[in-house]
Amino acid sequence: MSSSVTSFPEQPFFFESAHKQLYGQLGVPASASNLREGVIFCAPAPYEVKKFHWTQRQIAQRLQMAGYYTLRFDYFATGDSEGESRDYDLNQCRANIQDAIQYMKSSGLIRRISLVATRLACPLALQAVATERVRKLILIDPILDGSACLTEAQAMQETMLQLHLRNAPSYAPSALYGQLLGIPHQAYLLWQLQNLEGLPATIKAKAATIITSQGCPDPADLIEHLTSRLEEVRFMRISDNLKWGNARALQFQDFPNQLIHTVISAIRGAS
Questions:
Q1: In whole angstroms, what is the distance from residue 101 CA to residue 110 CA?
Q2: CATH superfamily membership of 10-148+198-268
Q3: Distance, CA of 93 to CA of 77 (rounded, Å)
């Protein structure tokens, strides 16, 4: 697959979620192939957004070429949305996903919606569709163990501080408190991660595709849970290695062409 695509317009705008303004980019499909279907992208944790930004954008552009509307947005307290980084909150993120779905449904542009969620966004997306119906769920390297996610991030935090010790001579172990890979946080976020709930009893979707890259465990419990509730569940392991747990890798954009192709095929229903 080529790494470049024809650029289709994306319309920057703000929409409201819980009385706060979220920044979004609405991708418009090629008019000749408008399917009246929408795809919403649920970004990973803030410290992983940089490495995955190009990937999400490429998937969105290719889906626009295939006739889909796309919505990429920043959660409250991230990116260009309202709020300070220290106010990042998983409950707020879940509500933002629900409001993004409602926004797309009320736009009059589409008939059906699918979600593409990555990493920590996967349990949030699952919780969101306990009340908001969608067509498909695409779950990329899902994180369902919040404590393990927190331990991994804290270990990378320490690694990065050691790597940059020369540029941070005032570093002391106590400086770890209140920051996670450069993102300031409140203690409540740590509690949320340690008590993460990712498998709601009700999931209002028709189908789900779970995609895992090299180094990520097979989500057997998630597959079993979804299989008992949805009409169609697919699990796909790809050879791309995204190195989520590598502190250095967080600083660079990913170019996972197999993942891009797999997500698009899952959305479009290709085998």
A1: 11
A2: Alpha/Beta hydrolase fold, catalytic domain (3.40.50.1820)
A3: 9
Single-letter amino acid code for the residue at 119: R
Structure token pair of residue 227: 């299989």
Please report, to the nearest 10 degrees, the dihedral formed by the alpha carbons of residues 250, 199, 115, 151 taken in order. Answer: -10
Q: Are strands 134-140 and 205-212 parallel, antiparallel or unpaired?
A: parallel
Q: Largest Cα–Cα distance of the chain, in whole Å?
A: 59
Residue 11 sits at φ, ψ, to 5 deg, of -100, 110
For the record, the structure tokens of 145 come out as 């163990």
Chain segment 177-220, per-residue pLDDT in tens: 478 888 888 889 999 999 998 899 999 999 999 999 999 999 99
Integer Cα distance of 6 and 55 in angstroms: 15
237: left (phi over 0), alpha (psi -120 to 50) or beta: beta
Query: What is d(CA 49, CA 187) in angstroms, rounded to the nearest whole number?
Result: 21
Contact 28, 111 (CB under 8 A): no
Given a cut of 70, the residues of the chain with pLDDT beneath it are 1-8, 164-177, 270-271
Q: What is the mean pLDDT of the chain?
A: 91
Integer Cα distance of 60 and 198 in angstroms: 25
Q: Determine the Cα angle at 39 with ends 38 and 42, to 5°.
A: 145
Task: Tell me what pLDDT residue 67 has.
Answer: 94
Answering whether pTM is above 0.70, one says: yes
126 Cβ neighbours under 8 A, 6+ residues apart: 137, 139, 198, 199, 200, 203
Distance between CA atoms of 110 and 245, rounded to whole angstroms?
A: 37
Q: Under a CB-based contact definition with an 8 Å cutoff, are residues 64 and 8 in contact?
A: yes
Tokens standing for 178? 């209140």
